[in-house]
Amino acid sequence: MNSSLLLARIRIVLSHPSHPGNIGAVARAMKTMGLSRLMLVAPKHFPHPDADARASGAVDVLAQAAVCVTLEEALVGTVLVAGMSARRRDLAAPFRWAREGAAELLAGIQHGSQSAEVALVFGNEASGLSNQDLALCHFPIMIPANSEYSSLNLGCAVQLMCYELRLAAEAPGVAPRSEFELAAVEEVEGFHAHLERLALASGFLDPAQPKRLMARFRRLFARVRLEREEISILRGLLTTFEKPKIR
Fold first, then answer.
1. What is the pTM (predicted TM-score) of this model?
2. Residue-range domain boundaries for the chain
3. DSSP annotation of 228
4. Which of 4, 7, 233, 242 has its CA 20 to 30 A from that of 175?
5. Strands (DSSP E) along 98-199, which ranges?
């Protein structure tokens, strides 16, 4: 698959962006590297003249941007999701540096179905991604910036990652071989909801003291990178546990 086709299957997702000018800067950063799929989750101001002005010649990217209410909605149909983070989180999956993470996203496209898409998620300018948002990602990505001053504005961070994604698309390497397709994000989320429901019903998960049990389950299955057939097996097993026992 050529680089243009690979890049066309990458979504850049901005979660709750607050400044319309930054959305325009992101569109410009994307277009310079050949990306065009922009998803906006609950933007504070969009569309907006400031976004058009900062986009310069990339207003076409803004025109076709999809506006979503939730991050879950923006990720429907993707098989691999990475979230940008400026710091390490306790229960997040092991992080990747920018170049490694970009290459892994490209491999996810090759490992998925003929229409598989992946997503790279950026958080709000002030607070970044919430722990809840990061829980929807398979792994976090960090940019190896100066540890004494690592602050990057949103447009610059997107530009750096789009550059890394373009490099990875130009030389994607050999895709991992598998006869099975990766599960889509919504399929994995359905499994996690099913698992939590059963854990509560069985008493294994105490709602009064949940601690971080479900977060640990998410971390475990994010490392495994579940396939569609594996999801079906796990959901079938959970359904069996839910059936009343006949004595």
1. 0.85
2. 3-170, 185-242
3. H
4. 233
5. 117-122, 139-142
Structure tokens at 183: 């599960």
Note the residue count of the chain.
Answer: 247
- Look-up: residue for tokens 């097996």? 233
Let me know: does 110 contact 175? Beta carbons within 8 Å.
yes
pLDDT digits (tens, 9 = 90+) for 66-124: 999 999 999 999 999 999 998 776 656 789 999 999 999 999 888 766 788 999 999 99
Q: Which residue has the tokens 């976090």?
A: 140
Sort 213 into a burial class: Cβ within 10 Å, 0-12 / 13-18 / 19+.
Answer: middle
Write down the pLDDT at residue 179.
Answer: 62
DSSP sequence for 67-118: EESSHHHHHTTEEEEEEE-SS--TTSPPPEEHHHHHHHHHHHHHHS-TT-EE
The strand pairing partners of 121, in sequence order, are 13, 83
Sign of CA dihedral 202, 192, 217, 15: negative
Q: What is the pLDDT, as a whole number, of residue 115?
A: 81
Assigned architecture for domain 185-242: Orthogonal Bundle (1.10)
Taking the chain (247 residues) in runs of 10, the rounded mean pLDDT of each run is 93 98 98 98 97 96 98 96 83 84 92 83 94 92 92 95 96 61 91 93 89 88 87 93 73
| Tokens encoding 246 | 């006949």
Question: C-alpha angle 120/28/153, rounded to 5°?
Answer: 65
Residue written as tokens 């809840």?
Answer: 132
Please identify, in words, the CATH class of the domain defined by 3-170: alpha beta
**pLDDT attached to residue 78:** 95
